[in-house]
Amino acid sequence: MSAHQRRQDLTDEQSVVLNKAAFVVISARQEGAAMLRESSVDLPDGWFSSPCAECACSDYAGDGGACTNNVVGPEGGSSGPCGHASSDHLGS
Ligand SMILES: [Zn+2]
Ligand SMILES: [Zn+2]
C-alpha cells in the first residue's frame, strides 16, 4: 500500500498529525546525517534520505508543510519545487 492510498482513509485532523509525525521522523534523519557529516563518516545507504514518493525529489526541505526542495528534471534542469507533504517523504 502506498503512502498516497493510506492517506485517503484519514480525516483532515489525522492528516495533520501524520504530516507532523512525518516531519519529526525526517528531522531526526537530517539531524543524524548532519552528525555523521561533521565527523566525516560516510552515510550508510538509505538510512538518512527522505525521498518523495510522488516525484523525483530526493530529500525533504521545509518546515513541516509543503516541500520546498527544487526538483531536478530528467534533463538536469530544475522543474520547480516538489510541493508535496512531509508524509510523502517517508521513503519506502
Ligand atoms: Zn515531491
Ligand atoms: Zn520534496
Task: Characterise this structure.
The chain is mostly helical and 92 residues long. The chain has one domain (3-89). The protein is built from two helices and two strands. It has helices spanning 3-8, 12-38, and strands spanning 70-72, 78-81. A two-stranded antiparallel ribbon has the order 1-2. A hairpin with a 5-residue loop joins strand 1 (70-72) and strand 2 (78-81). It is globular, with a radius of gyration of 14 Å. The N and C termini lie close together (10 Å). The mean pLDDT is 87.
What tags apply to this protein structure?
2 helices, DUF6422 family protein, single chain, 8% strand, mainly alpha, binds zinc ion, 36% helix
Distance between the termini: 10 Å
Can you write the helix and strand succession as a string?
HHEE
Q: Low-confidence parts lasting 5 or more residues at pLDDT below 50?
A: none
Number of strands: 2
**How many domains comprise the coordinates?**
1
Instruction: State the secondary-structure class.
Output: mainly alpha
Main sheet summary = 2 strands, antiparallel
Organism: Streptomyces solicathayae
Protein name: DUF6422 family protein
